[in-house]
């Protein structure tokens, strides 16, 4: 659940940024590819929520990739200000929270994939019930 909440919150934050400041919401960031990536999170974060919510293994892989890039982009973009004032890392929101969530996503990747090994989404439960029913059927 924390996984889904984290990505949903990220999606909402990026949508909010775009609604408030338009396409130039990330103009202050130093690299164009980072600006483009942050805008793309409006699509990527909900995609991860949908795929993981549907118990798709691809959602875990997408989540890991998205958070790896998100953490890296945030550290690259904020490195100068962190060097100037390391105390900002003690704030409850921002770079520290993004980094901790990114670590959570990466640490939970393999356990989630193991749990989802035989799951192909919600339909897998129906298939499992059908196979049990067929196995207990007496002819």
Description:
The protein has 139 residues and is mainly alpha-helical. Helix content is 76%, strand content 0%. Helix 2 (32-53) runs antiparallel to helix 3 and helix 3 (57-84) runs antiparallel to helix 4. The chain is elongated, with a radius of gyration of 19 Å.
Q: Structural class, from helix and strand content?
A: mainly alpha
Ends distance: 43 Å
Shape: elongated
Bin the strand percentage. under 5%
Count of discrete alpha- or pi-helical segments spanning 4 or more residues: 5
Work out the number of β strands. 0
Helix content: over 70%
| Largest beta-sheet details | none
Report the average pLDDT across residues.
88
User: What is the alpha-carbon Rg in Å?
Assistant: 19 Å
Which residues form runs of ≥5 with pLDDT under 50?
none
User: SSE order in H/E notation?
Assistant: HHHHH
Features:
single chain; 139 residues; mainly alpha; 76% helix
Summarize the SSE layout with pairings.
Elements: H1 2-21, H2 32-53, H3 57-84, H4 95-115, H5 123-136
Task: Put the structure in a nutshell.
This protein is mainly α. The protein contains 5 helices and no strands. The chain has helices at 2-21, 32-53, 57-84, 95-115, 123-136.
